[in-house]
Structures are given as C-alpha cells and as structure tokens.
Give the backbone structure.
Amino acid sequence: MACGSGSSEVEEADALGAVAGAPGSAGAVLHAEAPTTSKRQHPSGAACISLIATQSTAIRQGPCENAIDARPWYTVDVIARIVAIALICSTSGCNGCGRSRPTPILVDAAPPPSFGAQRPADASVEVDDLWKRAMAGDPMDVASLADREGAVGLLAGVEAGGDLGLAALRAMPHANDAELSLRRLAEIALQLDGAPQREVVEVIESIALRPARQTEVLDAQGARACADGLVELTKRGSVPKETRARAVNALRALSERLVVDPARIPAEFDPR
C-alpha cells in the first residue's frame, strides 16, 4: 500500500478540498492554481505520520508513490533501533559506552607504592641514621624525622614503599605541614585495599584530627580533593567497615575546616 491511497486518501482529499474552498484562504489560492490535483493531492505530514504508525507494511515498500519528491521514507524498525540506542546511552551516563567513569581524584593519579615487603630505598631518598631509627619505630625518632623532612620529604619516602614508606607514612601526622599530603594520601588509599589501605586512612584521620590552624588551610584544594576521595571510599561496600568508619571520622573533622559539606558525609556511623 502506498501513502495516500485507499480511504485515507479520499478523506485527506476531502479535507483539502474543504480548506481549498474557503474564500480568501491559502487553500483557495492553491486550488485555483492547480485545480486538477485536488483529488490526488499528496497527504499532509500528519496524515503520513498516522499511516506510518498504523500501516508499517506500507512504508517498508520504499518511497511513497505519490510523494512530491523522491526521498525515501525510513522504516519504523530503523527509527526504533536509533531511539533505543539513544535511550540506553543517555540513561547509563555513557562515556565510552560500557566503561565506568573513573573517580575524579584518580584521573591523573600515579600508581600507589607497595608497603607489603622490604624493598630498596628510592634513589631520591637518602637513608641516614635518623631514617633507620624511625624505620625501627622509635616514637621520638619518628617525630624528629617528621620535623626534619616535612610533608614533601616524607611523601618522597612514602612513594619509595616498603619499610621506608611505612616509616614515612607513620611520621606524616607529626609534620607541621602534613596537610600538604592529604590529596596524595587519598589517591593512594583509593588504590589499595586491606591492611595497607586501612593504615593510609588512619594517617589521613590523624592529620584531619589535629587542632585547626589559626590561619587558612595550607592546601585547601588538596584537602577538598582528599574529602572527595574519602566520600568515594565510604560508598564502596568492599571496604571493611572499620576503614570506612575512620574515613567518616576524618570527613567530620575536615567539615569543621569548611572543606567538605557535612551533608555529603554518610550517616551510617552516626551515634544512635
């Protein structure tokens, strides 16, 4: 069946004739210019849309026999598939279709160090007697190491990994400028799991719980990024409850420094 044939064509033609007969209307002008085409007038867009919906077999035959131009009609099947694909991608937040979006803080993050075994110290870290004593765990030496190295020097030790990295990690809360390490520590925590992840989160918590400075946060942007990472970590069901609880505790402390909205902190660990 072609568009515009059968009873629908007659009804359409009658409607066009009625409009054409109205004095002073645009239809009357068209009727006057082409009186012989009123019976075979191509149906309007609305009429063809109706036919497409009710008579899909007609449009599968190709171009309309009475179409004004020779452009083909697209089939309902093709249109339906296009719409379905568009809906799937729009509702799934498709960004490369099938791939989940990475956590923003991890987009440019370096891989995490390994704390699981002893390893040679990084060439950029000069391991002297103070480092060795701090690696042995003496609290006074750990504090002295933090005072001497500061956050930047300790981060270099953290990146070396192994026993050296653990010593640097445990010294970090004692550094006066420890806030400078928050972003990187959050990046590391998000990429680890198990005991190493818990230890990094504990260090972040210790830094966040330190008395607030009378001045502005040293690295407000880094602290905000750290808070974003902690919020992400608390949403991961695979992270042990104890680790998530410590992350929430750190977030509460950071909210007092106005680097995270308290409304974003999960209420799961609130006192009952």
Summary: The CA atoms of residues 237 and 244 lie 9 Å apart. The longest helix spans residues 139-160. Residues 1-40, 55-60, 67-71, 88-99 have pLDDT under 50 and may be disordered.
